[in-house]
Amino acid sequence: MSQKNRLDGGLIDRSEAWSFRFDSQYYKGHKGDTLASALLANGVRLMGRSFKYHRPRGPMTAGSEEPNAIVELREGARKEPNTRATTIELYDGLRANSQNRWPSLTFDAMAVNDLLSNFFAAGFYYKTFMWPAAFWEKVYEPIIRRAAGLGSLSLQDDPDGYDKGFLHCDLLIIGGGPAGLAAALTAGESGARVILCDEDFLVGGRLNLETYAVGGMSGAAWAAETVARLQAMPNVRVMPRTTVIGAFDHGVYGAVERVSDHLAVPEDGKPRQILWRITSKRALLCAGATERPIVFENNDRPGIMQASAVRAYANRWATTPAKQVAIFTNNDDGHRTASDLVARGVEVVSVIDTRAEAPTSSDYDVVAGGVIDQTWGRLGLSQIEVKMPKGGIRRIKCGALGVSGGWNPNVHLTCHQGGRPVWNEALAAFVPSATLPPGMTVAGAANGVFSTHGALQSGADGAKAILADLGIKASAPALPEAEDTPVKITPFWHVKTAKRAWVDQQNDVTAKDIKLAHQENYVSVEHLKRYTTLGMATDQGKTSNIAGLAIMAEVAGKAIPQVGTTMFRPPYTPTAMGVFAGRAWGMEVRPTRLTPSHNWAKEQGAVFTEAGLWLRAQWYPKPGETHWRESCDREVMQTRKSVGICDVTSLGKIDVQGADAAGFLNKVYCNGMAKLPVGKVRYGLMLREDGIVMDDGTAARLAEDHFVVTTTTAKAVPVYRHLEFVRQCLYPDMDVQLISTTEAWAQFSVAGPKSRKLLEKIVDDGMDLSNEAFPFMACAEITICGGLRARLFRISFSGELAYEIAVPTRYGDALVRRLMQAGEEFDVVPYGLEALNVMRIEKGHVTGNELNGTTTALNLGMGRMVSKAKDSIGSKLSERPGLNEPDSLKLVGLKPVNPDHKVPAGAHLMTKGDKVTASNDQGYVTSACYSPNLGCHIALGFLKSGDTRIGETIRLVSPLTGVDHEVEVVSPHFFDPEGERLRA
Amino acid sequence: MHDLTPLCALGGAEPHTDKVAGVTLTETPGHTLASVAARLGQEDACTKHLGTLLGSEAPGVGSWVRSEPISAFWTGPDQWMLSAPYDTHEDLAAQLTAHFGATAAITEQTDAWVWFDMQGDGVEQVMQLCANIDIEKMPVGAAARSVIHYMGVYVLRSAPDALTILGGRSSAGSLHHALLTAMRSAL
């Protein structure tokens, strides 16, 4: 199809004609086009269907404020719904489809909604779908969602990458129009570090859209020259295609750079978009202004646009929505559009000016004091009806109507921290108030300075004030001469006789809806917004809010500022979710921590599980084993029979040094640590300040002033943080130094009756591992394998004769291979987390399941560990009566009466004969497993007065999973209760 | 001499190297590390000892003093991280304990960290995608504690076109992925 509405000139590159497809039709466009401008050049005005009534819609704007021309861009996994055709940069081969229509854009069966519009007024859902309540989720909502909506998701993973980045500057300039460029020039030449962001791919703002001269050249030429000057400055970073989406605390701004959106596919390794966090000392908002429409009958037909957008399409993109264009205005700016169109050879059939004193023109017809009464055209504007000032209707044929209701400063970012704009009577618009985000000032049209000269000057002045504030000497580049036309406007918001007149075109909110809301007593503007959904679409009401407020003010008999404004929130424009995730998705959603034996375990075919950020071997399947239990049972049995090895590096290790190290540990552990001899390890229980158990672990004393403390894997960081808090804030007078050494040492548990024999093969001569020389709970710094420094601890989680041996992490892989090799003669077995868990449950050792943030030392059966002979954190509050009731929960072991039954964790305990109610609850199961040594399922749990109920048969229930059988209360120490094996 | 073979943090027998455009990312296992924290009341003495060791003043806040064979960067009030060549100073912690005596707590940190060197034209652009550091204003000899993709790191500036990044050893693979992805993106 030819570009029948393409004009001469413009800022597009005609050297190549690019092919693109919209719905099923192919078109041609050029570099520099947007999808909207290219479609308009091809004579396409119809680009979408409205949200609720499915009315035909075309672009209203030429920028990011667009409410109507929203399409599904790209196809397949890259499909992006609800993308504004007015900001989509054209590329060769672009594919876009219209949305929210069925079966096609030109014939949309859902447009029947429009005929039923009387039923779909504001509050329709709330009033209609009240009964039955259960129908809302299953019946009504799906129907409504299908009928009213936006684009559809691809339901596939986004194949593109997104980055997050960090930039710093003295001055962030938001918007690269005349104010922003003048500010950047001033600050850049003064040597300040400047970042200039502009959402457009061509920096220059309205300079690229207007015809008047700036410094003796076109505005676009001046903008291009200035951008080139700025880009040559090493202290200035010009960022086109970058939208500042939010103003956050401490001068931090969020900005999305569209790195690859102008390409069919991002280059290899390049992100689609980057979310920049810009830390600025100061920010100057030069976001320009948005022309607002006037509300009148059927004002939403394709072809009815902002007058400034019609002008922009003609001047920058060399296109017109139609050959004959009319203008409807209440201010002088509408006439500028008319003049520009005439100059570009477009027929201006009439300028309808609401003002009786409208300027006249020899180039076009002016109807002073007229208003649009009606429009016609099913899929696009074909005719307007003008109510003449002296009565009567005049019909005018035209394919486009430019509407100018005045300009609204883009104050959005000034409101992101609670600021409310103030009303300016002369401009008939809201302008930024004095309550701005700290560090922000505003210049140019965003501050209500609408002439080019004024914008340039206010940008330069704004920069100078900021430089002075920052103590940077300002150089003052000469500003070019430019037009300085005053604003002449007589507010006119809506044609009162209109019946179906759209205020918010994206959410299909009409003037009638606003009147209805008022009639139904919605007084607050915030309630009006939510009841009618005015301004709640993805455009946040950039073109609609003010008209809505004006109409509400009118019906309420108030002035506009008395009605107030709603709040603008980040993001400034719709933002892809992917950019908030950045690179954190899939396997990279968070870091992965690998144990030193990871490679080796992988070679063994280990099955891994996540333990926090760690990947730990869960079990090591052998050929022929088809179920994890087979592997787990084998690992348990073999360890208890001979020897097993487990990587326990992930347990936290904290180096505690200092003259007061022992005293310090005496404070943080509830049991005594001060008198622990050098070369010994002690089990310790750490309480929170409220007396609840925080974590357990061991403290090994390597020297008088040197301990190594271990924590559980899950609590490594919280415990370290707690210790630092205690050191720095509670006991700053203690000589204690802390540092984590979790990752510095690879640590392996070597457990089982043959563990000593195995270790004897690798420790260096002179190290006596006999029970006498190195008894249970001994520790030492030793060497192994001919001189490698290592640490050896005789501690046991499994209940076996066991050791933990640590070497510098780089040797962890070599050590596990050596241990396996040396252990061949004992049939050594590696064991994973499952076997570790089984063995500790058999032994009655607690872990995170029991230290669950609600339990005390008393609950754990360790009440006597809380030393009364000293003061330690949490000890006093652990004595609270509520934590020491006679029937307190106590740790018990549980065995099923019927050996075939399981004892699942999470199940609750009930006294036999009691009704299963929460008030009769006697306790709950925390850890459960199958014990291959006992030949049945076993569990640990908490039971009221459990220590006195050993031998009792009670009822185990889990109403959720249907469990209801009897279990016997036994000692939690199922295996080797006397501890003979671990002391062997 | 023991006969165990060490592995690099990324899991290879040899250090890993990547090159994207003009920037090289190298895993550098040839450093030992040890933390030095002044004992209470010994802050001045400890700082003086450190100065003697480095042949200059002890590094202050955000600084890194590089000298032969031992270098040091500041990690907190009266705390530093010291490094030296692995080949000659595998026992750095023991050597430092002897040097500082009762004025400081010394802890071996060598294998707690993975050490990456990034060198070439564009390291600043890469770091801008990684960490919230004002990298353009970070002088040679500066040290910063920061976060890259949720991982705590130290970033040291060794030259206008070179950075050193220290991250936790267990998450070396994730850090390497983050750095390499940023290199591909930025360069």
From TrEMBL, chain A:
Whether Translocase counts among this entry's keywords is: no
* UniProt record, GO biological process: tetrahydrofolate metabolic process
What keywords are assigned to this protein? Oxidoreductase
Keyword Nucleotide-binding annotated: no
Q: Where are the transmembrane segments?
A: none
One Pfam family, please name it.
Fer2_4
Where does the SoxA A3 domain lie? 499-582
Q: Where is the GCVT N-terminal domain?
A: 598-870
Report the Gene3D superfamilies cross-referenced here: 2Fe-2S iron-sulphur cluster binding domain, sarcosine oxidase, alpha subunit, N-terminal domain, BFD-like [2Fe-2S]-binding domain, FAD/NAD(P)-binding domain, Probable tRNA modification gtpase trme, domain 1
Gene Ontology MF annotations: sarcosine oxidase activity
Domain of life assignment: Bacteria
Q: Which SUPFAM superfamilies match?
A: Aminomethyltransferase beta-barrel domain, FAD/NAD(P)-binding domain, Folate-binding domain
Aminomethyltransferase C-terminal domain ranges (all copies): 890-976
Q: Belongs to which family?
A: Belongs to the GcvT family.
PANTHER family, per the entry: AMINOMETHYLTRANSFERASE (PTHR43757), AMINOMETHYLTRANSFERASE, MITOCHONDRIAL (PTHR43757:SF2)
NCBIfam families, per database record: soxA
UniProt name for this protein: Sarcosine oxidase subunit alpha
Organism per entry: Marivita geojedonensis
Automatic annotation (TrEMBL), chain B:
* Alphabetized SUPFAM superfamilies for the sequence: Folate-binding domain
**InterPro entries found in the cross-reference section:** TrmE/GcvT-like
Q: Which protein, by its recorded name, is this?
A: Sarcosine oxidase subunit gamma
Q: Which organism is it from?
A: Marivita geojedonensis
Its lineage reads:
Bacteria, Pseudomonadati, Pseudomonadota, Alphaproteobacteria, Rhodobacterales
